[in-house]
## 1
Amino acid sequence: MKVLYFAWLRTRTGVGEETVSPPADVRTVADLIEWLKRRGPGHAEAFADLAVVRVAVNQDYAAFSERVSPDDEVAFFPPVTGG
Amino acid sequence: MIRVQGEDFDAGAEIARFTSGRTDIGAVASFLGLVRDERSPGSPGLVAMTLEHYPGMTERQLSDIEAEARRRWPIEDCLIIHRHGRLRPGERIVLVLTASSHRAAALESCAFLIDWLKTRAPFWKREETEAGERWVEAKSLDDTAAERWNDGVAERWNDG
């Protein structure tokens, strides 16, 4: 599974992109976040306040309850500020 | 049409190209967004703004927004140019053009596009000021501006 981080989620985790192989019991975005938080203090800090974290699965906005599978591209980022 | 690019653009030339050879367009509406230095007296000035984006998702979201505008209004054409990278105060960030037979559809769809773009296109601004750097936070006012398009504008047009 490809996981991407943007803006301050990238600076806090220290990576822009990583390939991960979560265990089979990681079924949803929320499960994935809980699993990613254990990768280190930077990851735990990035996901400390989920009210300011948005997620996209395969480049479409998704809910934390959305299912994820090994071939997915999952991106985490703060609310957007373009325009 | 969608363009996501690092380089600057010429708004006048884009409008000229947009309508070139067309005689069915009666109105072009445009929105040009610039890097603004919001400094208040005594606060550190803005040195530059760096726009990060999510390549792939950006184009996809902008195309979806364009398709939604075309579904809601009778527009002949649409152009969205959005820049990324490091920009200085006064530099151009975004251009939205819409063309229609009449002004109302052009003006409304242009306002819709920029409002939706601001809340959906995956761009993030990082400010460099004389005092340091910080990520710009999303504004709830932008959400309010985008939400005002949820009130059935499309239905009004489609009924007409």
## 2
Amino acid sequence: MIMAKVSAMDIYKLLPKTNCKKCGESSCMAFATKLQNKKAMVEQCPIMNTPKFEKNKKKLIEMLSPPVKEVWFGYPDKKCVMGGDEVMYRYELSFFNQTPLGIDISDNLSDEEIKNRAKYVEDFVFERTGEKLKLDFVAIRNASNDPEKFKKAIEIVQEATKLPIALCSLNPDNIEKALDVVKSKTMIYAATKDNFAELLKILIQKKESGKKFALVLSSDDIKTLKGMTKECVKYGIEDLVLDPHTTPENIAETLDKFVMIRRSAIEREDKLLGYPLLGLPINSYFYVLNGNNTLSKFIEESDKAAGIIEARTANALLNRYADAMILHGTEVWELMPILTLRQAIFTDPRKPQAVEPGLYPIGNPDENSPVIMTTNFSLTFYTVTGDFEKDNVKCWLLVLDTEGKAVDVSVAGGQYCGENAKNLIEETKIEEKVNHRIIILPGLAAPARGDIEEKTGWTCVIGTRDSSQVGEFLKKNWEKILNDWKAKNA
Amino acid sequence: IDWEIPINKYKGHIREVQFGKPKSEGGRGKVVKIGGQKALYRFEEPQPNAPVVTFDIFDMPMPGLPKNVRQYFEDVMQDPAEWAKKCVKEFGADMITIHHISTDPKIKDTPVKDAAKLMEELLQAVDVPFVIGGSGDPKKDPLVLEACAEVAEGERCLLASANLDLDYKKVADAAMKYDHNVLSWTIMDPNMAKDLNRRLISHGLDGDRIVMDPTTCSLGYGSEFSINAMTRLRISGLKGDELVNMPMSSGTTNAIGAREAWMKNPKWGDRAYRLPLWEITTGLTMLLSGVDIFMMLHPVSITALKELGKTLTT
Ligand code: B12
Ligand code: SF4
């Protein structure tokens, strides 16, 4: 595994080396390791904040800052964090800060619609593997080009929710007015070649008066983008996001630009392109809705086709470094794959995806309840417990340490075996909790049955293949299984 | 302000593999090529061949297929030749994958010679190249593949698959004797892929006759493992490792097995869109990780994936 580019030793050299423990770590070296793994901030060492260490601190922050700047917007306690990446491929380290997903709200909607849509976004949740996958922000679109309507929409959203807000208008005057009502640090969409000078002037002033914001620079020309970042940085506007245009009529162009910019930042160390990238799948949605439904042979309803193609764009962009995205579609079937792909891409490949092995009582089991054995792979564990909860299954769930492997993987790999099962039974003292000696195994664990019976002395019953059928299976069979066993072992 | 397109130099290239044979050379007609890339991205160097989708069909009706896949094939599932024709005529299939599922001793134990007979029929029914698949039974598959390879002699099919659990030498022999390609299938580990390719090549198989399948995990069921394995293999290939510079294949249909794709659940919205989108997302992720040929099932997914694939090569 390739590790972060900076070594803990390089970091340590710049620390005070007093081992005073004020940072909460046992030594400066331990703190250095935390810093290296992005688990701590330089400011947490109080000595580093003293004037004597000012120079070292600056050096250290520079050294630790990733080639793609980390930029956030929203509220201090509810942030959308973008960027922060150090590598081109996730296997080289990990990708950081999962892509915030925003849903657009047009200011042409009625007050009620605005409120409901914002509420929907805030409440939306899809649960997977013990994680609540959620949407992150709303993009208020100044479709009316009317500053009053724009402001009103912002107020409604702020009143109804605590969602971070992106302000979308190409009209600098309207942005200026909107900034007066928006309470959080907002993301402004966007500065373009046409409005750049005017918008920049306004933003410089706003910044001087203490207003905080992130600014999206938008152009389909990468040199132009670079020119704009240079100009912004000159005036101290450094929380930038780049939008190289999402073009549904030729999405390959968009994907190319995302790669070019990211490669320039990471492999060519081009600081002026080292900013998060914004993708706009919403463009694909409206492209299809406006008469470009290439799926019409199968799906006539253009809003459904639009949802599919929008998700396709979103997922392609997720695979190509998108650090934030704005979508229009809100149907669950569309958002599920996007949220799932995001979760997959941003899981840390350095960590095993496992839960604590052991005994988990599900739904107040008693001495007559079944004992069921699964694995400690997070995906397996959460799928199984999710199904059990849904079907009101009452059981003792034994979670075998399979080193975070799924059922068939660990059967094939030898971790789902008699020896491990025996140890688990002893450690959890399950024998004292039930008056039988029966374990229900997953269908996929059938090949390990003989070994488990032999090593543990327990009777194994092969259950269903999928845990979603376990509730049904137990309802039909458990009583008989238990009685048969009791009759035989009386 | 200056900026240059960041183009990387690659020592190696990806091999080009051909399926089918033109009529002029005595084949049935359609020829499909995959691979041949000299760079990772199209902005570095135009990509020579568009990604290819091969339609899955089965040698017996598959009652287990989700309803919203079955709805497209219900009328032809009894007859694999008609099934293949429908894929080509109605859905524009570039290639067909026949899974000889019924040869599995645990299913129908269809004799090898019957599988070969069906293969002959299929070759007559359509003019596109074939991927020939077994049932997954490690003892029987090499025999099935050998018999089908013989009747398809010279058609440059893809024999699916050679893997470490079965007599891969027999599969390679069939490919060499009857002029076919071999799918070299391993589980998500780039070193295993390299090892199997090395064995196949040292057994005598031409490296240009190999397509790798590093295993496609469905979206949500380990797709990130596949992303890593495929990206690493493609990059090693381009860097010049001749043992892994083969084009790649993805069993994208796996996605349909994910519960989020097939399960009825009002909280998850309409399956009619959810299922194809799950397959599209899985395939598209593999596409952007370097895969060249996709085994897929749902006509909507196939249309959506091919359309995107085309833009990447134009
Ligand atoms: C991802 C994956 C991997 C990943 C591992 C990821 C992980 N953390 O587990 C990696 C790359 C590491 C891997 C490695 C290997 N793998 Co692998 N892998 C897979 C893959 C693609 C998906 C597995 C998965 O995530 N399933 C999802 C989880 C949720 O399913 P599950 O744990 O089975 O749980 C379900 C059911 O079992 C049931 N259930 C669970 N508990 C209970 C309890 C009861 C009582 C009941 C009734 C039901 C039940 O409900 C759950 C929800 O549906 C499968 C193929 C596939 N598509 O299934 C191959 C597969 C499992 N792997 C396989 C093999 C051979 C291997 C290796 C041995 C390869 C090798 N030669 O090195 C290694 C072994 C590694 C080891 N153990 O040391 C084979 C197994 C074949 C077999 N059955 O013998 C498979 C089937 C692929 C194949 N077709 O050949 N693999
Ligand atoms: S607070 Fe600073 S000086 Fe003290 S141990 Fe931590 S890193 Fe070292």
